């Protein structure tokens, strides 16, 4: 049985490098235009040669997301964009038929986005006939339904990350409330907030779990073996708005899960790893049964067991002695702390501070305004340093 492709999100260069280092087979990313994560950092067309250079040594595929709805006034710009990006990508992920037709015109493979809510065999046949290389199925399908559709055309499914309370993300709430369309990649996620009920007389009723529109995050790790047997071509991780530590951790966990059959103990340990980064609690989604009230989140933001706090920047790195100079811009740091080092070229690395020096003298703690020397296997001038904070 062929291994499924592990597809990771890349919303920035640090996240892209994190995905590569963690073992992704492919990455998907957006440009400033026409993608469903308009609020992510995204990339510019001028970044594409560097993206290709980073991915080439490990033969990592690159998929460009052009998955918003398209208006008439944008067709010319869209066509120019597609022509310019063709040499640097393996496929386009899209939902508007105008994009699909342009991909056909310029002989670029395309994958049909989950925005199209493909949930049956006849729709799958239609997109196959149109020329799709792959379809990203609606998230509202169970494993039996997925297996049936996978007999028709290669399919891609989400295995981890945020889920939308609407059908495959096609929601108008943000548009109605704030004039920021989810279908143009500008969703403000009002569903994540807590809600109360008001009657016509102004009486308020606070709900037991007021996050009634906010689903927990999808996590398929506990039953990943069943998904591996479902003839699925690609396993996709959601999260182009997420930080590099999220991309690295989630990609690394599912890389292990794809490459070998995990024991129950390993699954528990790796689930704890997933809990360290952004999540709103975990749900099986629709894979095994219909969601219940237990599949709604109980928090507005993240349930992660770890967070990070910006400390400062690397001002110099002495490669011969493997020492970095860290200028502390905020907070304090002490011996024994764990840190992230994040940079556009470095990606993300984690280190435990075993020793710190100021003016060649050992110190146990340092604070804002001080510059310290710390032993680091590798980093670069300008890299950001964050202290890892474990939540109790």
Total helical elements: 10
Query: In CATH, what is the class of the largest domain?
Result: Alpha Beta
Helix proportion: 10-25%
Whole-number tally of structural domains: 2
Average pLDDT level: 92
**Overall body shape:** globular
Per CATH, the superfamily of the largest domain is Aldolase class I
| Main sheet: strand order | 1-2-3-4-5-6-7-11
Quote the beta fraction: 25-35%
Quote the distance from N terminus to C terminus. Answer: 43 Å
Write the layout of secondary structure elements.
Layout lengths: L4 E5 L3 H10 L3 E5 L17 H8 L5 E6 L8 H11 L5 E4 L2 H9 L4 E3 L8 H10 L3 E3 L6 H7 L5 E7 L11 H6 L17 E3 L5 E3 L10 E3 L4 H5 L5 E4 L6 H16 L4 H13 L5 E2 L22 E13 L4 E6 L3 E3 L3 E6 L3 E6 L3 E3 L2 E3 L1 E3 L3 E5 L8 E7 L2
Parallel strand pairs: 1-2, 1-11, 2-3, 3-4, 4-5, 5-6, 6-7, 7-11, 10-12
Antiparallel strand pairs: 7-10, 8-9, 13-14, 13-22, 14-21, 15-20, 16-17, 16-22, 18-19, 18-21
């Amino acid at each position: 049985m062929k291994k499924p492709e592990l597809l990771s999100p890349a919303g920035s260069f640090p996240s892209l490098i994190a995905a590569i280092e963690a073992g992704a087979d492919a990455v998907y990313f957006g440009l400033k235009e026409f993608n469903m994560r308009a609020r992510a950092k995204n990339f510019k067309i001028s970044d594409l040669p560097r993206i290709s250079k980073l991915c080439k040594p490990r033969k990592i595929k690159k998929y460009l997301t052009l998955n918003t709805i398209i208006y008439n006034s944008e067709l010319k710009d869209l066509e120019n964009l597609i022509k310019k990006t063709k040499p640097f990508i393996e496929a386009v992920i899209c939902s508007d038929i105008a994009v699909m037709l342009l991909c056909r015109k310029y002989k670029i493979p395309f994958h049909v986005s989950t925005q199209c809510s493909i949930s049956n065999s006849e729709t799958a046949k239609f997109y196959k006939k149109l020329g799709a290389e792959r379809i990203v199925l609606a998230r509202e399908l169970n494993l039996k339904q997925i297996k049936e559709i996978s007999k028709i055309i290669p399919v891609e499914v989400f295995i981890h990350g945020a889920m939308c309370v609407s059908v495959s993300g096609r929601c108008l709430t943000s548009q109605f409330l704030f004039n920021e369309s989810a279908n143009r990649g500008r969703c403000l996620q009002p569903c994540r907030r807590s809600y109360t009920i008001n009657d016509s007389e102004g009486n308020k009723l606070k709900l037991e779990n007021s996050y009634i529109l906010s689903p927990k995050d999808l996590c398929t790790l506990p039953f990943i073996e069943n998904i591996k047997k479902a003839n699925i071509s690609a396993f996709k991780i959601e999260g182009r708005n997420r930080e590099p530590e999220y991309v690295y951790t989630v990609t690394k966990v599912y890389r292990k899960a794809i490459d070998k059959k995990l024991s129950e103990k390993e699954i528990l340990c790796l689930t704890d790893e997933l809990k360290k980064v952004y999540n709103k609690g975990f749900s099986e989604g629709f894979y095994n049964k219909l969601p219940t009230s237990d599949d709604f989140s109980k928090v507005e933001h993240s349930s992660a067991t770890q967070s990070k706090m910006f400390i400062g920047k690397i001002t110099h790195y002495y490669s011969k002695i493997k020492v970095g100079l860290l200028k502390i811009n905020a907070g304090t740091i002490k011996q024994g702390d764990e840190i992230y080092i994040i940079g556009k070229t470095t990606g993300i690395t984690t280190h435990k501070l075993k020793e710190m020096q100021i003016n060649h003298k050992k110190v146990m703690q340092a604070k804002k305004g001080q510059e310290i020397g710390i032993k680091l296997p590798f980093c670069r001038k300008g890299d950001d340093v964050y202290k890892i904070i474990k939540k109790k």
